[in-house]
Amino acid sequence: MPDLVYRNVMHDIKKRIRGGEFTTKKLPDERSLSESYQVSRSTIKRAMGVLVDQGIIFKKRGSGTFINPLYLKDQSAFRYEGRNLGITDSFQVNGEQPQSRLLDYRVVPASPEIQQELFLNDAEFVYRIKRLRLFDDQPVIIETGYIPIKILPALTPAVVQSSIFNYLQETQDQSVTKSFLSIRAQPSSHEDQKLLNLTEVEPVGVMEGIFFMDDGTPFEVSNMHLHYKYLKYGTFVNLDED
Amino acid sequence: MPDLVYRNVMHDIKKRIRGGEFTTKKLPDERSLSESYQVSRSTIKRAMGVLVDQGIIFKKRGSGTFINPLYLKDQSAFRYEGRNLGITDSFQVNGEQPQSRLLDYRVVPASPEIQQELFLNDAEFVYRIKRLRLFDDQPVIIETGYIPIKILPALTPAVVQSSIFNYLQETQDQSVTKSFLSIRAQPSSHEDQKLLNLTEVEPVGVMEGIFFMDDGTPFEVSNMHLHYKYLKYGTFVNLDED
DNA sequence: AAGTGGTCTAGACCACTAC
DNA sequence: TAGTGGTCTAGACCACTTA
């Protein structure tokens, strides 16, 4: 990442908060920070804005800026467990890379629904990639992904076994940072039970996602069935600005 | 809401996008918009930034700003179904107000966990409010909420039956726009099955939330068991700025 | 080379809170 | 009344894309 000023300020303030520097839970006012960091007040505001979005601080007009007490108590809650879930391919649990077993790999015509979601024409084809992901030798996710062949014409099963997102990054210098996600739950099917070692009263979490490249092109539609014990989506929700 | 310039611009651009005005999927450049709206370029950037956060447009440095094709195809995906779920109390489904059946209402000492989450001391008390929420006479959610008595010392069962958030708004001019949410799934318990009319293979969604007032004070901890057919959390995820 | 978005600045003025 | 965050401006300069 480039060396942006507001980013540096943001990280520094975060570090100072974690270091327990502001025992009153109150941050210095924006004009002082502007002075001490030798940057404009706008830049301070931008840095602070990121921390507000992350739920780490609260601003109160007229009184000042305050640290979310929970951030000091339990920083793990701020880790956005859901974030890693967003990018299925760069999944990590406790820093461990998942294994992947390829269940199916084929090229098929895009169904009307997939056409709409990936913005394809009638005659276009997609890879249909079905994988079982395992952590610690435990099967955790059944994932079915659809990717337009025109985006990755040279995709191979070998690449699919490792990381499609890395491959995209390397071959096209594009990353995937945006997605729509929806999450729900349902009883497990026979296939779910068999692949994920579930009993019939144990459910699966269903995550469906559309992933976009930096330029807005839809890159992949993905449907995931997760072992319910591994589904945990956590997020900070801010209803301002709506 | 006040009549902020960037907000007006944001809404106007959104309206123009929905109206199909930009058939090329490309928006005018920022300097032109600045000119035509007679506002500064910074204000345009701010308005556009909101739309980027909502997943409605994508910016591409050097080329321009483009509409997310999915926004035109399927605006419902952009509705953040999860948003309403965030504020359990102002829940709506198809614009319908939920009914609420009070299952339990008492004042108890805050457990260590609740103390931590609501930032309370050892000797403090909380309301423990257990409600069953129904839509269309269908039981949908079992909710157990914990609220510090010191925040709402005059709370009554009558208020609880209607809307606690409205009550907070009226009595203290505070709203609740921020929360931590976590979502998971699990098999239904006997109580779940009985109250939500589930069979034993049907699961519940579990949403846990900590809700904050505008000034950052934790207001409520809530644990919800949702009928799995009504759990659908959708959101736009942007992994920039991390 | 021209066009477009990104970053950053310096400062004016407003709105709210606390005293 | 003093202090604090919010909004908005006008403009400089940079980085990237496209031709």
UniProtKB/TrEMBL annotation, chains A, B:
Entry superkingdom: Bacteria
Pfam families: GntR, UTRA
Keyword Translocase: no
HTH gntR-type domain span: 3-70
UniProt keyword DNA-binding, yes or no: yes
Key words of the record: DNA-binding, Transcription, Transcription regulation
InterPro entries, per database record: Bact_HTH_transcr_reg (IPR050679), Chorismate_lyase_/UTRA_dom_sf (IPR028978), Tscrpt_reg_HTH_GntR (IPR000524), UTRA (IPR011663), WH-like_DNA-bd_sf (IPR036388), WH_DNA-bd_sf (IPR036390)
SMART domains to which the protein is assigned, alphabetical: HTH_GNTR, UTRA
PANTHER family recorded: HTH-TYPE TRANSCRIPTIONAL REGULATOR GMUR, MANNOSYL-D-GLYCERATE TRANSPORT/METABOLISM SYSTEM REPRESSOR MNGR-RELATED
Name assigned to this protein: GntR family transcriptional regulator
Organism from which the protein derives: Levilactobacillus zymae
